[in-house]
Amino acid sequence: MGAGHGHGPSHGQAHPHGPADGHVGARYRRRLTAVFALTAGFFLVELVAGLVSGSLALISDAGHMAADVVAIGASLVATRVASRIDRSGRRTYGSYRAEVFASGLTVLIMLGVGVYVLVEALGRIGDAPPVASTAMLVVGATGLAVNLVAVLLLRTGSRESLNVRGAYFEVVADAAGSVGVLIAGALIALTGNPGWDIAVALLIAVFVLVRAVTLGRQVVTVLAQHAPTGVDPDEIALSLAAIPGVAQVHDLHLWALTSGMNVATAHLVARAQADHHDVLDDARDLLRDRYGIAHATLQVEPADHHGCQDLTW
């Protein structure tokens, strides 16, 4: 049939069965833990303040903070699960997808919080209860400080890990919510109109829903095994076809196992007299060095081989 090659740990890719020392999400576990502690502590403060002051903006932001606590906790569990050694022999790709499922849970929580606040705010229009603006200002300022610290802790990891990105989106949305609470508190103090509380709650709800949809699309891209973001299958196919000795490329598949772990499989039809080992090594190096795909399974076929015509997908 030709030469095949599966390629992983020797070029910086964590082995699916071993600990994820190079795993992106695991590198940010300490920062996620710090953000979890900050968020959980402030959630209790904001919830009590919201109930005492009667502010829907505070209560809605506290609800979003509660979503953060659950989502970041799930992210922490996922990074630990993803880095465990598989002793069953059944998880041939390891447990890295746990992080993606955690991100999916974050999306569901954000959607639930956003819809709840939206409905509650709409129900208060025309019948806004009195709100204690001083509590809104104090808690809003404290919340903004807490969220800015969390944003700084997760900003770098959000560029590398889908799991960390989910937590990052949560705290960014919280920071925006804290700004909204501050604005609403100031406007209520100046005008005496509690309707500003409802207006800000609506804005928070819309912002949370938009963030949830954005992250949800990224999660679906991974779970549906689409080509990773920023990776062009046509370009890769042309690059592989341009390798000396390659006559044709077919059955090219590209997907992301989880953040920072892109995977590829392909069949390369070699020209007559071509050295299959050279073709295999050149293709492996191309995928790793130019496209960052360190785990590729490549099959090199002689030009007169026709067995792949039986494939139906």
TrEMBL record:
One of its GO terms (molecular function) is zinc ion transmembrane transporter activity. It is found in: Membrane. One of its GO terms (cellular component) is plasma membrane. Pfam families: Cation_efflux (PF01545), ZT_dimer (PF16916). Keywords: Ion transport, Membrane, Transmembrane, Transmembrane helix, Transport. The chain crosses the membrane at residues 35-56, 62-79, 100-119, 131-154, 166-190, 196-214. The keyword Signal does not apply. Belongs to the cation diffusion facilitator (CDF) transporter (TC 2.A.4) family. SLC30A subfamily. This is Cation transporter.
